Amino acid sequence: MNWPILMTGAEGAGGGGMFTLVWFGLIFVLMYLLLIRPQRKKQKEHENLLQQLKKGDKVVTSGGMFGIIFAIDEERGRVVIKIGETKFEFLKSSIAAKVDN
Predict the structure, then answer these.
(1) Banded model confidence at residue 17, pLDDT cuts 50, 70, 90
(2) How far is CA 61 from CA 8, 73, 94, 96, in A?
(3) What is the maximal distance between C-alpha atoms in the chain?
(4) What is the mean predicted confidence (pLDDT) over 79-100?
C-alpha cells in the first residue's frame, strides 16, 4: 500500500502562496453568502417596513409591546403608539413588525 508522503518545511513551500490566496477567497465568499447577504436582506426588509408604516397600523416593538400607531414624526424619527388609553413615544427603528389581527 502506498501512503502519501507529507511535505514539510521547504519541500512544500513552492506554490503555497496561491493556495492560501484561493483558500482565503473561498472563506470570504462563504462568509458573504452565509452571514453578510442574509443580514443585508433582513435590514432592507425592515427599512421597507418602517417606510410603509401609517397611522392606525397595529405593531409590536422590539421590546415586545403591542399597540396601534397614533402618530408618526418623520422629521425626528419617532412614533407615538397607543396602548390601551395610554400613548407612548418610541423611536421609529424600534418597531419590530406589523401585526395582523
Answers:
(1) confident
(2) 58, 16, 6, 5
(3) 82
(4) 95
Residues in Cβ contact with 81 at an 8 Å cutoff, skipping those fewer than 6 apart: 59, 61, 65, 67, 68, 69, 70, 87, 88, 89, 90
Q: What is the DSSP annotation of 3-31?
A: PPPPP-GGGG-TTHHHHHHHHHHHHHHHH
CA–centroid distance for 20 within its chain? 30
DSSP 8-state secondary structure symbol assigned to residue 75:
T
Is the pLDDT confidence value at 88 over 80?
yes
What is the pTM (predicted TM-score) of this model?
A: 0.68
Task: State the cell numbers at 9.
Answer: 518545511
Query: Residue 39 and residue 16: Cα distance in Å, rounded?
Result: 34
